[in-house]
Design brief:
By secondary structure, the protein is mainly α. It has a two-stranded antiparallel sheet.
């Protein structure tokens, strides 16, 4: 009795409209709780609601009905028998007539049929009454959605009952989905519609009404709320509506005309949406449903492609043709009907004006249709090709008319497009056919009937036609014809030697033709031939290319290089040749003069037929570059690379020599080595690199060992040349070694490391099988048991060390247990007597080892503090030694930073403290060291096997930035301008390498620092600070331009000031990056042949001293007449004889460096009877105060010296100024 009393109290509290919301909530919760615990039952609730359900007050009736509906919805496990379910169903059927309670009744019906199953025909009665008694506009969004949910539930639970309603259901359903605007209801309605179409056959009587209802929503225009991640998106609605449009082919008669009309809309977005919908619907409808509209579809798409100005619309229209063609392939008759309309019109436009824009668009239409399917390709090609052959034949008869050449090009380009499209279609067909399909059942390639005719046509055009553009297009056609396949298989090519349409003989003819064009004077033809060869290489078996292409290219490379040697030999022996372009007439008795100077070359360069052989050095050099370009590009194709590794090994052996015959010979070898380096850098294939590690790596090291041994044993005159050449060769070879070691497995690295350690640390040259060669090449005083240890302090072979450090840095193994290795690298990195590059390479290798050390807990801060920091902070330590220790410390910090070692922040803090050092240079060097901590380098990266912790940059910046910022502020407050600027450099270096997300999060702190950096960079020494600051500033402006509003008054003047000084900054930046710092007086200033301009700048600081660029051999004026000797000593790439002096030819042969033509010409006019040889550096030191070639100010002082050169002194001065 107590429970009933409480129940009545709660019912009163819930039903009473005057009750507060808290009271209502508590009341319904208590009712549900008591029912859940079986203290009351549904009958008690209904009895308690009796008076309210019959009350004349509509609000009380609705509240009472709502309470009952809440019980049914919120208690899914409420036990009800079928009589109770029937009673409730009938109650709700009756209550639907009460307009005031319609929403509450709909909610109750939803709970009833969701959690219970009414018997037949209660569901029908409920649905009929909903359709007849409830008007959608009387319901809220939630209750309208409930009606749709009721229909969906009934489809799942009692479909047969719903189907019995037939037309009545469709009428009621259409009533409830019409004019719906809420996206939550719309998406449910769209998803329900296909289910209605599939299950209610009577829908066909209402198609027009149905389409009118759904078409008004196309295209969807809806912008969801941005702050709701679960909101319905525009794509959700569009996809649901798309399924409605395509749910039955019966809608085609309504949807296709509607979509065509939308395609003609003025809105770009509507056009594109309609095109995509058309494709989807046509594919779902099937070809026969679309067939009545083919002409209308084609007409619309053609108009868009030919006349529309928007590129996006044109491309989307082409895609539509592609997908429609592919879709129609399922019904051949439909496809033929569609293509026949297209082919007829396209042929008309192509024939009438091949080079017009319309013809080009027609060609693109055919391309899309051919590539869509193999069947469409067959249908189109069988109609198009015969017509194109005839068109081209007619045009060739009129090729004297320039316009006809363009038309021919258009037709050939169309041929090329069709070949490409057919290959796409054939590949697509071949990959979709099952492996079980026999080859006899496969469709043949549509090109097969035309292959011979195509081959003859393109072969003739590529070789015989006078037009370069026609030849170029024909070459591409040949390559596409070459790769066209008869069959497609993923099996071994050896079992399918006839997979190509062309037989082997024709394919080899194409290859030979392409190779013959690689040295064409026409750049377009040459590049097109190279591209075509690469296309062929990507599809052909490497063995076919190895028969002709690779051997021919290698022969051409060797021949070109031998011509360079031959030219050099002829130049040295022929004293009468004064021009660069020399034509030599040889007779049968002069073969001995044609012997190649390359010890590895076995070619006979004699000319028994007395032919005129051009020995133009520029031509030979260009030939070599062209052949190398071709060889390099082809070898980047992985399967081909594996097959040419032996040839690469031979090239390396031939071009890393003990002695080079001339500077041209050396430059040729350097070009070849750079090409090989590029090939290996592009390869990341483990298999290929493993082969290289076994066949190339140690022979390469052996060659470098041999060359370094010869360089070290040269006399003083040749030592600088040998060292310079070795350093130049070392650059590409180190890249080769880096690529090989980086890309091989750990198992393959183990023997490489073992051999390398024996070779470089123990001096065991047997590791490279080179003991006898070393003994033979060593000086006579050296015993045959000489052991070369580059890491010994007195060793002259330290230039070999970077080879070893490259291998160690790229090793994926833990080498921390090898104490000898670690100590050797540690000591060498601190040696001030070796080049900076060698010391840094050792520091990188040492850092790489400690990064990969497994026992990171054994790495103690005290080691760095006791061994490195104390020396750096010791006032008695010489500055060069401090710099060495600082470099090693910085790289060790980077190593422990990337692997997440716990002491990395402590090390970073110590590095920051060094910036406060009173030594300005040490402070500046420490600030620059922050640039390497977060930057990407060739070591300490994932490829080299280093341990890289996730988000290490963010963690380090978050902890380190406040430390540097605080130090900057302290030094600035103390007015320590230099130190504070160095802290700015450190901060800028950090900012430059931190992800932008971190920068944006610290924007308020970073912006003032960047602005301060711009102001501090007025000092000429702060070029690096300016560079880092501008990079950071650019990124921040792009990301958050509004943040700079408050800084505009200071930012714009600063940028203007910087721009006015840009030349000065660039100049200073070059000086910072230049290894020659203009501090060598009377010394050799050259380390690299390619830096002549920089070295010439160095000469400005050497007072009246001739600083040689290559050999720096200063000769006296007594050698003025030794013109021939000067020619023989020339190390330049191009021997340019300046014959400006007609009266003194014999005494004024000025051999000019390629990079300094202007300067040398000045000397030619300024120096009387003097041999000014820049490359050979046989400079005369007598009476020439104007040997500084870069000084314009000396022009007026040379009038007296120029009398023998030219009678008009004023002209000489003008020439000097102009050339300068």
């Amino acid at each position: 009795m107590t429970n009933i009393t409480e129940l009545n109290k709660w019912i009163e509290g819930y039903v009473n409209p005057q009750s507060e919301e808290s009271v209502k909530t508590n009341a319904i919760n208590m009712v549900l709780l008591y029912m859940k615990s079986n203290k009351i039952n549904l009958q008690d609730v209904v009895e308690g609601l009796g008076d309210y359900l019959k009350n004349n007050d509509s609000i009380l009736r609705a509240r009472g009905t709502l309470l009952l509906s809440e019980v049914l919805c919120r208690l899914p496990d409420l036990p009800l028998n079928q009589d109770q379910v029937h009673f409730l169903a009938m109650f709700y059927c009756d209550r639907l007539q009460d307009y005031a309670c319609s929403s509450e009744v709909v909610k109750g019906i939803t709970g009833l049929i969701t959690n219970h199953t009414p018997d037949y025909p209660d569901n029908q009665k409920l649905l009929r009454n909903i359709f007849s008694e409830v008007h959608p506009t009387s319901l809220t969004q939630a209750h309208r959605k409930m009606v749709l949910q009721i229909i969906d539930i009934m489809f799942n639970k009692c479909l047969s009952e719903i189907q019995e309603l037939k037309n009545d259901f469709m009428v009621g359903y259409l009533q409830f989905i019409d004019n719906e605007k809420d996206p939550r209801n719309l998406i449910f309605s769209f998803k329900l519609l296909p289910k209605v179409i599939y299950n209610i056959p009577e829908h066909k009587h209402f198609l027009e009404s149905l389409f009118e209802i759904i078409s008004c929503y196309f295209p969807i225009s809806f912008n969801p709320k941005g702050n709701d991640p679960n909101s319905i998106t525009k794509d959700d609605l569009s996809n649901a509506l798309l399924n409605c449009f395509s749910c039955t082919p019966l809608l085609a008669e309504h949807s296709i005309p509607f979509l065509i009309d939308k395609i003609c809309s003025n809105l770009i977005e509507t056009k594109i949406e309609a095109l995509k919908t058309l494709v989807y619907c046509c594919d779902r409808y099937g070809g026969y449903a679309v067939q009545p509209f083919l002409e209308e579809i084609w007409s619309t798409l053609r108009t868009l492609i030919l006349t529309h100005k928007n590129t996006t619309v044109i491309e989307e229209s082409k895609k539509t043709i592609f997908y429609l063609t592919r879709s129609f392939t399922k019904e051949r008759k439909v496809l033929e009907s569609f293509l026949s309309i297209m082919i007829k019109e396209c042929l008309h436009h192509i024939k009438s004006s091949q080079d017009s824009k319309i013809a080009i668009y027609c060609a693109s239409i055919l391309y899309q249709s051919v590539s869509a399917s193999l069947l469409s390709s067959k249908i189109i090609l069988i109609h198009i090709f015969p017509n194109l052959f005839n068109f081209l034949s007619e045009l060739q008869k009129q090729d004297t008319v320039p316009q006809k050449v363009n038309e021919q090009n258009s037709v050939i380009a169309l041929f090329n497009d069709l070949l490409k499209a057919n290959s796409i279609a054939f590949e697509m067909y071949s990959t979709t056919t099952t492996t079980a399909t026999s080859e006899n059942n496969k469709e043949p390639n549509p090109l097969e009937p035309f292959v011979d005719q195509l081959f003859k046509l393109f072969s003739d055009l590529s070789l015989l036609n006078s037009s370069s553009s026609i030849r170029s297009n024909s070459i591409e056609c040949l390559s596409n014809l070459y790769i066209s396949k008869r069959i497609h298989s993923n099996e071994d090519d050896s079992e399918h030697s006839n997979k190509f349409l062309l037989d082997l003989e024709k394919r080899q003819l194409i290859i030979k033709s392409l190779v013959s064009l690689l040295n064409s004077s026409d750049n377009t033809l040459r590049h097109k031939s190279l591209e075509s060869l690469f296309t062929i290489a990507s599809n052909e078996d490497p063995s076919v290319l190895n028969v002709y292409v690779i051997p021919t290219l290698l022969q051409m490379i060797n021949h070109s290089s031998c011509n360079i040697n031959l030219n050099n030999n002829n130049n040295n022996n022929d004293n009468n040749n004064k021009n660069n372009n020399i034509v030599i007439i040889k007779n049968n008795n002069s073969n001995n003069n044609n012997k190649c100077q390359d010890e590895h070359c076995k070619e006979d360069h004699s000319n028994p037929n007395n032919e005129n052989i051009s020995t133009d050095e520029n031509s030979n050099d260009n030939d070599l570059k062209h052949y190398l370009e071709a060889f390099t590009k082809l070898c980047t194709h992985q399967p081909l690379l594996e097959s040419v590794i032996p040839q690469i090994q031979v090239l390396l052996q031939h071009n890393i020599k003990e002695n080079y015959q001339s500077n041209e010979d050396f430059e040729k070898s350097l070009l070849i080595l750079q090409s090989i380096s590029f090939i290996l850098e592009k390869s990341t294939n483990i298999k290929s690199m493993t082969i290289c590690s076994k066949s190339i790596l140690f022979p390469l090291i052996k060659g470098l060992y041999k060359q370094e041994l010869i360089s070290s044993s040269d006399n003083n005159n040749n030592n600088s040349i040998s060292i310079n050449r070795f350093n130049q060769i070392l650059t590409p070879t180190l890249k080769m070694i880096h690529s090989i070691v980086e890309n091989i497995s750990i198992e393959s690295q183990e023997p490489v490391l073992e051999k390398s350690i024996k070779l470089f640390l123990n001096g065991d040259t047997m590791a490279i099988d080179y003991q006898q060669q070393l003994a033979a090449a060593a000086p006579a005083t050296t015993s045959t048991t000489t052991i070369i240890k580059p890491f010994e302090k007195s060793s002259p072979y330290k230039y070999l060390i970077p080879i070893f450090t490259t291998i160690i840095s790229q090793s994926k193994l833990d080498l921390s247990e090898n104490n000898q290795l670690k100590q050797s690298l540690y000591d060498m990195s601190l040696d001030v007597n070796v080049d900076d590059s060698i010391a840094i390479s050792c520091a990188k290798a040492y850092a790489s080892i400690i990064n990969k050390q497994k026992q990171q807990d054994q790495i103690d801060f005290n080691f760095f503090n006791d061994n490195l920091l104390k020396v750096i902070n010791d006032h008695t330590t010489p500055l060069p030694l401090k710099i060495r220790y600082l470099d090693l410390f910085a790289w060790c910090t980077k190593a422990l930073l990337t692997n997440g070692n716990s002491i990395n922040i402590k090390l970073g803090s110590c590095l920051a403290e060094i910036i406060s050092n009173e030594n300005v240079e040490l402070s500046y060097h420490a600030s620059k060291s922050f640039g390497i901590l977060l930057s990407e380098t060739d070591v300490l990266n994932e490829k080299s096997g280093s341990i890289i912790k996730i988000l290490f940059e963010q963690k380090f910046f978050t902890l380190m930035f406040p430390i540097l910022l605080e130090s900057f502020k302290i030094n600035k407050s103390k007015e320590l301008q230099t130190t504070s600027s160095h802290y700015l450099i450190a901060i800028s270096n950090l900012l430059k390498h931190v992800p932008k997300e971190i920068l944006l999060s610290e924007l308020n702190e970073i912006l003032p620092i960047v602005m301060q950096s711009l102001k501090s960079s007025d000092n000429n020494d702060q070029v690096q600070l300016l560079d880092s600051s501008l990079q950071t500033l650019t990124m921040l402006i792009n990301e958050t331009p509004s943040s700079f509003i408050s800084y505009l008054d200071s930012l714009i003047p600063s940028l203007i000031k910087i721009s006015t000084k840009s030349t000065k900054y660039v100049s200073n930046l070059k000086k910072k990056n230049n290894n020659n710092n203009n501090n060598n007086n009377n010394n050799n200033n050259n380390n690299n042949n390619n830096n002549n301009n920089n070295n010439n700048n160095n000469n400005n600081n050497n007072n009246n001293n001739n600083n040689n660029i290559n050999n720096n051999n200063n000769n006296n004026n007594n050698n003025n007449n030794n013109n021939n000797n000067n020619n023989n000593n020339n190390n330049n790439n191009n021997n340019n004889n300046n014959n400006n002096n007609n009266n003194n030819n014999n005494n004024n042969n000025n051999n000019n460096n390629n990079n300094n033509n202007n300067n040398n010409n000045n000397n030619n006019n300024n120096n009387n009877n003097n041999n000014n040889n820049i490359n050979n550096n046989n400079n005369n030191n007598n009476n020439n105060n104007n040997n500084n070639n870069n000084n314009n100010n000396n022009n007026n002082n040379n009038n007296n010296n120029n009398n023998n050169i030219n009678n008009n002194n004023n002209n000489n001065n003008n020439n000097n100024n102009n050339k300068k």
